[in-house]
TrEMBL record:
Composition bias, Low complexity: 41-52
CDD domains (UniProt xref): EVE
Localization: Nucleus
Name of the encoding gene: Thyn1
Species lineage: Eukaryota, Metazoa, Chordata, Craniata, Vertebrata
Domain of life: Eukaryota
Function: Specifically binds 5-hydroxymethylcytosine (5hmC), suggesting that it acts as a specific reader of 5hmC.
Compositional bias annotation for Basic and acidic residues: 10-28, 56-65
Nucleus among keywords: yes
Keyword presence, rRNA processing: no
Domain EVE: from-to ranges: 73-235
Alphabetic keyword roster: Nucleus, Phosphoprotein
Protein name: Thymocyte nuclear protein 1
Organism: Cochlearius cochlearius
Region of interest (Disordered), residue spans: 1-65
GO cellular component: nucleus
Amino acid sequence: MPWPSRKRDKGAVADKKEPDAKIAKTEEETPDKEEEEKSTKPPAGSSKSGWKNWKKTKESDSGGEESKITYCHWLLKSEPESRLEKGVDVKFSIDDLKAQPNQTTFWDGVRNYQARNFLRAMKLGQQAFFYHSNCKEPGIVGIVKIVKEAYPDHTQFDQKDPHYDSSSRKENPKWSMVDVQFVRMTKRFIPLSEIKAHHLAHKADGGPLKNMMLFTRQRLSIQPLTQEEFDFVLSLEEEKPR
């Protein structure tokens, strides 16, 4: 049986006080322990050359045409280290996912309206980065795919679960989850600090990571990615770590 409520968004308590339509468009105001993006300073140097080389490759593949900006990939945060929440260990690493039957599990426990709406927007077969958060060195460790689209999250009705929501009704559930399946590990660990270095460089030179939600909405545990963002981050696994 899959492990309980290990993937979730903090800030849910504040969210519950306001209507869905409002909260879905705003970011939670309270700090999120799940992602202490207090991240270390990015490594010295610029990522411009890497961006330009990547851009040349993409332009040769697409004839130089800019791709339409749509969200078709995702980034899912989960905690790889033990932490008790209301007596329940919310730890769930990518190795824990690999140990599940058929390497598949439900992505439960999300209690933020915007993150929930992203879950509901996920389509069968779409891929996502599995991101280790709230740990000594956060970053991307692997790739998963969506194998079941959004359906009611059962933990909202379980009084023993740390993410039980007494205000949610079975006839009109507030919270959703999807099923994900392990695809593969990334060829190397891609740390937050490295991604941040590229993000800062791209803000200056117009690269694909300039608006990456990992830095503009960093508290969210479910984040969408454009095709360009996904492709660029994936290309980093081929580079030697800085």
